[in-house]
Amino acid sequence: MALRDLDDVIGDYTGLAQTVLDYSALMKRMVDEAKEPGFTVDSWGPLAELIDTENFVRVGNFKEVMNWQDYIGFLTGWAGSSEWDCSFKRVTEAGSVAFLELEERSQIGEFSNSVNSVSVYEFNDAGKITRIDVYLQMALPDPELLASYTEVQI
After folding, report:
1. Domains in the chain: ranges and CATH
2. I need a labelling partner for 137 at 20 to 30 A (CA). Which of 1, 46, 99, 106 fits?
3. pLDDT tens-digit profile of 110-138?
4. What dihedral angle (degrees, nearest 10) is formed by the CA atoms of 29, 85, 134, 46?
5. Nearest to 27, CA basis, from 16, 38, 37, 19
6. Which of 149, 23, 16 is nearest to 93 (CA)?
């Protein structure tokens, strides 16, 4: 399957598929902005507009479960020290769920990796994201990468 730049496909979709692509594009922009002075958990407001922040649940790479406040706290720490980018593979929408397949690339210090991801986004009736489940295919991570999870209950 040929990978495509997210910017090249983002205008080709509507509905929930469009929302998950918007989420990914915002994530990229905000991870880049997180290195600037003054970036805090409150800076995730543009992303929060897509989220039902009161009912949000994210189940991550290591089956860790976070609500919205936990998630933006984690993102703030991670994004401040990480580079992240992605390439689009496919998005599929069924009912109130969208499945987004990406190749994600990140770098933390000298450690870099590339993973294949499938994120399953669940939506409420208002079209807000209520849940994200993340599934990855990746090489075994360096133990130093896991240090960023010291405050996360897995």
Report:
1. 4-138 (3.10.450.50)
2. 46
3. 888 899 999 999 999 999 999 999 999 98
4. 0
5. 19
6. 16
